[in-house]
Amino acid sequence: MLLILLCLFIAVVVIQFLYYVVFFGKFSFAKPQTSTPKRIPISVIVCAKNEEENVKTFLPLLLEQNYPDFEIVLIDDASSDETLEIFEVFEKQHSNIKLVKVENNEAFWGNKKFALTLGIKAAKNEYLLFTDADCYPKSNDWIKEMSAQFTMKKSIVLGYGAYEKISNSFLNKIIRFETLLTATQYFSWTKLGKPYMGVGRNMAYKREEFFKVRGFMDHMKIRSGDDDLFINQAANSENTTVCYTPESFTYSKPKTNFKDWFTQKRRHVATAKHYKASDRTQLALFYATQLLFILLPIILLAFQFQWIIVLSLIAFRYLFAWISLGFAAGKLKEKDVMYWFPIIEIIIIFTQLNVFITNTFSKPVQWK
């Protein structure tokens, strides 16, 4: 039995090597990205529900973008605070702002996808750039960098939605590491010609791609997934590319307690079960081998079975994973989280397991 477990452990390390070096290496070891600015008209779409403090702070940053032709479509999704009133003030002050007011609809109550659909239809431009109300661009060249990746063939652009750094917060490092790992995965698979998700904090696509798949209709009843489920359905090797220049990043305020972050993770994992079967399989295999990489050595070392081989495999796996993610972290400006890599990885692995078990017995809360 111990020999079988050792063989299984070797197989796990080989699979992890394929993921981290062969697959993730497509992004991790890629050359720094360059871009050729374009002048295509862009509609920036922001959907907000009860975000009065965030829109006060972040809307001015969107208006300061260094881009010749863009409008901002503000969608108020039946907010109960002062969000709508703040939007109305901005609309009066800026000619390139268009306001879409969404009232509660019995058929689509509380559904962000319904609100986004109205905003997409109201936009005057064909090229759409999305971010969330609690996000802000890192630079005034955000629109320029994201729009530069559009070509005659590439009509979907996946960007990086980062989280702010909080000093002396270990939870913040966990959140940013998990975000780094997720981005490394979807950037890499996109480069491999198999895009499977993106984040609504920073993504762009041509409106025709939205209507090709009937918008969100096929998953309208699933409250979340306006970003990743749409990309999972609409993106392919021909029409999708990535943007990871530092000037293209957006930032959001991260959760500050474990309970809120855990709730957020529950929503994300619940949405992923609706991905295509091939995407679910590759994600499940990755996370299963991560868990087995932790559990199998514990058993083998407890019996001191071939401990030199086991320790060598552990060291080898940590070495190639650290190098691969380290290069990715350099591209995404998240190097500081890599100092805690082994510890954070173990926490995330068991958090994912806890999320899976919890979601099995109860449904997560969705859009506000």
From TrEMBL:
Transmembrane segments annotated in the record for this chain: 6-29, 283-303, 309-330, 337-357
Keywords: Glycosyltransferase, Membrane, Transferase, Transmembrane, Transmembrane helix
Protein's UniProt name: Glycosyl transferase family 2
Entry's Gene Ontology molecular function annotations: glycosyltransferase activity
Claim: Transmembrane helix is one of the keywords in the record: yes
Lineage top rank: taxon: Bacteria
Pfam families recorded: Glycos_transf_2
Cited Gene3D superfamilies: Spore Coat Polysaccharide Biosynthesis Protein SpsA, Chain A
Domain Glycosyltransferase 2-like: 43-205
SUPFAM superfamilies linked: Nucleotide-diphospho-sugar transferases (SSF53448)
Recorded family membership: Belongs to the glycosyltransferase 2 family.
Keyword presence, Glycosyltransferase: yes
